[in-house]
What we know:
The chain is mainly alpha-helical. It contains 7 helices and no strands.
Amino acid sequence: MATAARQYLAEIGTLNGPQELAGDDQLFRALVSGCHVENAAQLAGISERTAYRRLADPEFRLRLDTARQSLRESILARLADAGDDAVDTLWTLMRESDDDVIRLRAARAVLESLMEFHGSAPRVETTVTSRVEHSQRIVS
């Protein structure tokens, strides 16, 4: 995330602005947004030592980890939606473009993505394949 974006996220406050947030809340927001501890402490108006003490608090740490996980899941969901749109775009370009070069590039992108997906996805066996292999083991 770009530094300006991190700072913006760290400075977001309540409806009335960031000045109403207590130090812990400002520290929390800055850390969730991806700021380093030193920068988060400065934005929160507390010392680095205090920030590290807060991070050592299991309750604060759990709250922070939970918020970060929620943010990651939200981003992943948005990327999945964008991925679906990207596949639709490639499909349309591959089938409907008048330019052979564009169709070829779209087809390559689809095939490369498919190979990468299959290379990283866990192997899923179909029920029929499993039954045939099981039967062959029994017969042998």
